[in-house]
User: Fold this.
Amino acid sequence: MVPMILRSLVFLLLTLAVAPSTGWSQDSPKPPVVPPELDPVEARKGQLHLPLVFGQTQLRFGTQPATASKGRVRHTGWTIVASPKHRVRAVLDGRVVHVERLRGYGLTVVIDHGHGYHSVYSHLKKAQVAVGDAVEWGAPLGTIGSTGSLDGVKLYFELRHEGRPIDPAGWFLPARELRRRLQQ
Assistant:
């Protein structure tokens, strides 16, 4: 079953990697104002909010112990657990390029942020966006759920660049700073 799940996700992500980026049009949200020599997505590194305001990161990017065996498994994103009422939000401006159920990942939304960057949000209970929608940073994408999950309500989140997973750790505001901003 796992190889089939991986094939499904790999096919989707390879398709996105070779598809031309949607870029920014007049109808798209405006990217942040940064010096032109910098990639506007890369310039936001360290400034993003998590896709769930309230939640606990259960698994992080990298090699993790396998739950069913004594082996280890490579985790290409973050698994965040939270209660089912919480909304999942876009971490950057972009255009929705995929909303579909994927075997093993459940209801999945993929956003193209331009410049080869994509974010992936899986196990949603319900999606509030459709393919082609322009979304702004912080826009609700849906609610956290357990579709495609064998172990409860959670969000599986990935950041990808040029079709390859990247560790999201350095992209987000530290939790202390995020809490401070939310209290203002």
